[in-house]
Amino acid sequence: MMEAKRIFNCPTETLAEFEEAAKTAASLGYTHMTVSDLPKSIWQWNRDRFDPYPNWGMMHAALFKVYVPEKLREYLPCDYAEKNLRIVADRCAILKKYGLKAAFHGCEPAWLPEEVYRDHPDWRGGRCDHPRRARKAYFSPCIDNEEVLAMYREAVAAICRVAPIENFTFMTNDSGGGICWGIYLYPGQNGPAACAHISFKDRITKFLSTLQAGAADAGLRADVAINGPKPLEAASAIPYLDDGQYINGQGREAATNYMGCGLADYFYSCNFYPVKGLQQPVSFARGYASVAANPDRNCTVSLERVDNDICLAIMELAEGGENETPAKLWGLLEKTAEKVAPYAPEYLLRAWEAIDRAVTQIAHLEAGGPILMLGCLNQRWLNRPFVPFPMELTEEEKCWWRPFIFQANSEETACDLMNLQCYPLVRGHSGKYIAVHLIEGAIRDLANAESCYRAAAKAGDAERWSLEADRLYACILLCRNAVNACRFQEILDRTDYALGPCENDVWHTAPDERLRDMQVIFRNELDNTEEMAKLLEGRQSDIFYVAECPEDEDIFLFGPDLVAQLRKKQNVMMDHYLELQRLWARHN
Questions:
Q1: Dihedral sign, CA of 407, 411, 412, 418?
Q2: Max CA distance (Å), the chain
Q3: In which element (H, E) is residue 500 found?
Q4: Which terminal CB of the chain, N or C, has fewer other CB atoms within 10 Å?
Q5: Would the pLDDT of 472 be above 80?
Q6: Is the peptide bond before 109 cis (omega within 30 degrees of 0)?
Q7: The Cα angle at residue 15 between residues 302 and 161, in degrees rounded to 5
Q8: CA 94 from chain center: how many Å?
Q9: pLDDT at residue 502, rounded to an integer
Q10: Does position 269 have pLDDT exceeding 60, yes or no?
Q11: Residue 409: predicted pLDDT
């Protein structure tokens, strides 16, 4: 039986960090390490900053972002690809030192600029964007077209000659990538008429074989995988896969199937993004226990950061063990806490348990992504002003947040706080009640975890555990921001703007109930914003993922001037505070 492939996936910012991660992977018995976390392809968004959809695709690697085939060089930035190829090659050289092989994770077939298809209409594949999130149509190349397949083979061969990669995995039908006539394509099944008759089985096996042929041209035997097809599609093709080919982690032989656990992409560092480095040991241990108990299975284990010492300790202590029962899982966590903080293991265990409970509650509000990411970040709840007439804001009052809202349909929908990527996650009193109930439960658990970390800080390593506690407090403030957003929008939704203030209370000195509630929410949000500004002042990059320079701010990254933006938010809210009285009678 072939040796199990064990892939270690951990984004790094420097070659020194990468080498440290490679050293760790080798010491834990891993066989491969991912080399494809690369600089964002922000050129894709710069083509049209009015359209936020490319923010998804620009986070993922793709083959033509690392090597540009001859026929695409007039359309794609070759300098960006050359820089990426150097990064990948340098990382592969480090892996060789530690006896590791390289793995590549990306998104394919990924969309190409429209001018490619204007000049080469036969290359146009299926439409792969999300129609409710994109302001224009995006098309991936048709992988049934022989010229397109030749370009993929050329790219893989060229990459592998410089960087010997022996494992390729691609997500598809998401984030600006898609397969012709795929069931999972966001606009629905679509593609060119020329390939409509080709079965999924034939299409995908030919594509995977083409990628393997490219590696073979460079003298390598590579495994190739595609994740994302519907189960029905996958089932139709899996029996016909060749050796080293996988769909949704499944190969032709069940024994070769892949397992996985961990935090795959940085913004899926679970439900607390954009907070940086907040580890979730219980959920990680729960997933890793199965990996450790099956050493003969292929697997991919992902960490958010190379300094994730708690999860690394779990990996070290779980190797070869059986920790899948609750009692044994807790025993693993106890050993981990003793290793990481022998001076305060009981505080760590209590904190981890509370964090896991908070994750469970927040996860109920997941809809295409965690609510703190979708709302506080993508909808810019955190730094946009909460005002009753958002359409009346001037350009000066919205220039620091409006360009970074993940909203594509209209200005009216962009003003709706609950329109999360064109998906109304929370609507009406009942929806608001459930959402607030879950988030406030998470706040209580996060507060318990924060107090445990502060107690650990008093017992030893004060700087480290104080930072962890501050990150938890940032999560609490994000949760409060989400609660205020849900309550604020729910009241606006049940207000007739055309009616204006009406006196309908029994006691003429009492304000309208909605005005009273809105004033409370308004003040809560002002105070919460102030607490966040104080917490982040001078150290926001220790607590949040933020762009290093203003030009790098995007849908998934706050700008480096976030604290100043929070102050602007407070000022704009106060400038428009009395506009609440345009909607509801104040009486007193």
A1: positive
A2: 86
A3: none
A4: N
A5: yes
A6: yes
A7: 85
A8: 27
A9: 65
A10: no
A11: 78
What does the pLDDT read at residue 261?
A: 85
Which single residue is written with the structure tokens 């910012």? 13
Which residue in this structure is represented by tokens 């107090």? 451
Q: How many Cβ atoms are within 10 Å of 430's Cβ, its own excluded? A: 10
The CA angle 379-384-387, to the nearest 5 degrees, is 110
Contact assessment for residue 182 and residue 118, using Cβ atoms and an 8 Å cutoff: no
8 A C-beta contact, residue 234 and residue 258: no
Contact 457, 465 (CB under 8 A): yes
CA dist 332 and 395 (Å) reads 54
The dihedral over CA atoms of 259, 261, 264, 269, expressed in degrees to the nearest 10, equals 170
For 207-242, how does the pLDDT look when each residue is reduced to its tens digit (9 = 90+)? 999 999 999 999 999 999 999 999 999 999 999 999
Angle between helices 281-292 and 326-340 (to 10 degrees): 110
Rg for the chain, CA atoms, rounded: 25
| Dist CA 191 CA 140 (whole Å) | 9
Calculate the alpha carbon distances from 351 to 54, 310, 464, 583 in Å: 38, 13, 14, 44
- Encoded tokens for 307: 């300094």
| Structure tokens given for 137 | 């149509």
Are the C-beta atoms of residues 10 and 303 closer than 8 Å to each other? yes
CA quadruple 180, 299, 12, 342: dihedral sign: positive
431's enclosing H/E stretch is helix 428-459
DSSP string, 264-327: -SGGGS-TTTTB-S---HHHHHHHHHHHHT-TTSEEEEE-S-TT-HHHHHHHHHHTT----SHH
Residue 213 tokens, joined: 């042929």
Residue 535 and residue 276: Cα distance in Å, rounded? 14
* Amino acid letter for position 237: A
For residue 102, the cross-strand partners are 33, 165
Looking at this protein, which amino acid is placed at residue 322? Answer: E
pLDDT above 80: residue 463: yes
Angle at 544 between CA 542 and CA 550, to 5 degrees: 105
Please, are residues 445 and 354 in contact by the beta-carbon 8 Å criterion?
yes
pLDDT in tens, 366-387: 767 788 999 999 999 999 999 9
Which amino acid type is present at position 519? Answer: Q
DSSP codes, 175-206: TTB--TT-TT-TT-S---GGGTTS-HHHHHHH
Q: What is the pLDDT of residues 506-550, one digit of tens each?
A: 555 556 788 889 999 999 999 999 999 999 999 999 999 999 999
Q: Which token pair is 266?
A: 């940085």
274-312 per-position pLDDT tens digit: 999 888 999 999 889 888 888 888 999 999 888 889 999
Distance CA 55, CA 369 (A): 14
Per the document, the length of the chain is: 588
User: What does the block give as tokens for 174?
Assistant: 């998401």
